[in-house]
Amino acid sequence: MTTTPTPFDPATIGIVSISDRASSGVYEDQGLPALRQWLSRALKNPITFVERLIPDERERISATLIELVDHCGCSLVLTTGGTGPAPRDVTPEATLAVADREMPGFGEQMRQISLRFVPTAILSRQVAVIRGCSLIINLPGQPKSIAETLEGLKDADGRPLVHGIFAAVPYCIDLIGGPYLETDETVCAAFRPKSAQRPPRP
Q1: Is residue 68 within 8 Å of residue 56, measured between CB atoms?
Q2: Which residues, in sequence order, are CB contacts of 178 under 8 Å at separation 6+?
Q3: How far apart are CA 140 and CA 158, in angstroms?
Q4: What is the pLDDT of residue 159?
Q5: N or C: which terminus of the chain has fewer CB atoms within 10 Å of its end residue's CB?
Q6: How far apart, in Å, do the first and last CA atoms of the chain sit?
Q7: What is the pTM of this model?
Q8: Strands, E, within 11-163: which ranges?
């Protein structure tokens, strides 16, 4: 008996760019387009994006994350900006304030990737947490760094040198009760144990 592959699960994903200057119109935000473009390339699922551009204000950031998870039903929320050591960089604190559990491996791996390029990567304070059935991840602020940390680093033949963090995201979301995310392997090959994999699609 043949098993018919099921359609791709729809996914609601929150993307949040956190910047005083971009949110006040001093310059054009680059974070939201970078997140939207990368996710649209990487995922085969139909995606509904819920986007927010907000200033570096701790209470505002926490309230936005709660809104996206609890009211908008986002199974994944990616933030960009506000993770350095400057006084206005409060994204990690705002994220931890709404967390049920912390997922430290994501931040550790992001810093490992960035250290391949700049020694100041050790100043980055990105965190990842679970709230309810949602995974929230803080990403760097620059579009190039966003892609590198999500996708990882590859050699000239396209073989992974350092795995990006997104390879672990779909299985994490499986485990917390979210949709089954399927990636384009030419962008980012998601890893799941065989017991957690759905039948391949034709």
Answers
A1: no
A2: 11, 75, 76, 133, 134, 135
A3: 23
A4: 78
A5: N
A6: 16
A7: 0.94
A8: 11-18, 47-54, 76-80, 101-102, 128-131, 134-139, 152-154, 160-163
CB 102 within 8 A of CB 128: yes
* pLDDT at position 6: 61
**Which residues have CB under 8 Å from 105's CB, separation 6+?**
128, 168
pLDDT of residue 202: 59
Residues 6+ apart with CB under 8 A from 79: 15, 16, 17, 18, 61, 65, 91, 95, 136, 137, 138, 139
**Along the chain (202 residues), what's the average pLDDT of each consecutive run of 10 residues?**
71 97 90 97 98 97 98 98 96 98 97 92 96 97 93 82 93 97 93 90 62
Q: What are phi and psi of 91, to 5 degrees?
A: -60, -45
Quote the Cα angle for 41-126-87, to 5°: 125
Q: Quote the pLDDT of residue 3.
A: 55
Quick one: CA dihedral 174, 175, 176, 177, positive or negative?
positive
Residue 121 DSSP class: G
CB 56 within 8 A of CB 94: no
Find out whether 20 and 88 touch, Cβ atoms under 8 Å. Answer: yes
pLDDT at 154: 80
